[in-house]
From TrEMBL:
The chain crosses the membrane at residues 6-31, 83-101, 107-129, 141-159, 165-186, 198-231, 243-265. It comes from Microbacterium limosum. Keywords: Cell inner membrane, Cell membrane, Hydrolase, Membrane, Methyltransferase, Multifunctional enzyme, Protease, Transferase, Transmembrane, Transmembrane helix. It catalyses: Typically cleaves a -Gly-|-Phe- bond to release an N-terminal, basic peptide of 5-8 residues from type IV prepilin, and then N-methylates the new N-terminal amino group, the methyl donor being S-adenosyl-L-methionine. It is found in: Cell inner membrane; Cell membrane. GO terms for cellular component: plasma membrane. Pfam families: A24_N_bact, Peptidase_A24. This is Prepilin leader peptidase/N-methyltransferase. It is a multi-pass membrane protein.
Length: 274
């Protein structure tokens, strides 16, 4: 699919607006899932339990209008809420722009692929929040991601995408899962079970794009996590045995692989051939 610049711009704006709404929902998921609170419950202030009205739930705008405080009890509302909404909106817009501008797939396959990566972006945001807060990657979010990814990529194949990409995605997911499982068995205190399960999902999304994306995405996770750990140790905010959530770095590495993995891999192999 080779879309006109005006069409790409329109879809990018729409994706960004959709990301604002999804970001607001992800804030709810990140708070309620670890606490066991149903997602269907009406929004309430955690300080006074007062109801949050519809106009108070408008992404970013409501937080600014309320000056970061509850309309009822005036308790402070964390700036994390609008920040998550903004980050999700920017991520959705960037993914839409990159996908529509670079995809060589038929229109239907391109749009299905876009939906798959927007879903993965939403999962990435909410798992990063939950892992930072609780040191957990809930099965209720990770495990369904396997099914969603495989169904969407299979649909993309039926719409004209290369079947080999789906096979590669499945193989990459299995290989990355097994790699993390070995690390988990070798050092149970250094790798969580949630990381192992997430690795398979990451592998599927990287594998769909190519082996270069898999290699770069997997490697980047350990580089980013290692640099972060060393920074904490240097600042004396962590020791050698301090547990650091690795899920966020797995996901950050995955997105490096998604956006730049194939190009970086080609550049590296080009240097080796000189």
């Amino acid at each position: 699919m080779s879309a006109a610049p005006a069409l790409i711009a329109a879809y990018t704006v729409l994706a960004g607006a959709f990301g604002l709404v999804i970001g607001s929902f992800l804030n709810v998921v990140a708070y309620r899932v670890p606490a066991g609170i149903p997602l269907t419950r009406d929004s309430r202030c955690p300080a006074c339990d007062g109801p949050v009205r519809a106009w108070q739930n408008v992404p970013i705008a409501s937080w600014l209008a309320l000056r970061g405080r509850c309309a009822g009890c005036r308790a402070p509302i964390s700036a994390r809420y609008p920040l998550v909404e903004l980050v999700t909106a920017l991520a959705f817009a960037a993914i839409a722009a990159a996908s529509l501008a670079s995809s060589a797939l038929p229109v239907g396959a391109t749009l299905i692929e876009l939906v798959a990566y927007l879903y993965f972006a939403a999962v990435s945001v909410v798992l990063t929040l939950i892992d930072q807060d609780t040191r957990r990657l809930p099965n209720t979010i990770v495990l369904p991601s396997y099914l969603v990814a495989l169904v969407l990529f299979a649909a993309a194949v039926s719409a004209g995408a290369d079947p080999a990409a789906l096979v590669r995605a499945v193989v990459a997911g299995l290989l990355l899962y097994l790699f993390y499982l070995v690390l988990r068995l070798a050092r149970p205190d250094g790798m969580g079970g949630g990381d192992v399960k997430l690795a398979g999902v990451v592998g599927i999304y990287l594998g769909w794009l190519g082996w270069g994306a898999v290699a770069v995405g997997a490697f980047a996770a350990f580089v980013l996590g290692g640099v972060f750990g060393l920074a904490l140790m240097t600042l004396r905010r962590a020791g050698r045995r301090t547990a650091i959530p690795f899920g966020p770095w797995m996901l950050a590495g995955a997105w490096i692989g998604i956006f730049a993995g194939e190009a970086l891999a080609r550049g590296y192999t080009g240097l080796l051939s000189i």
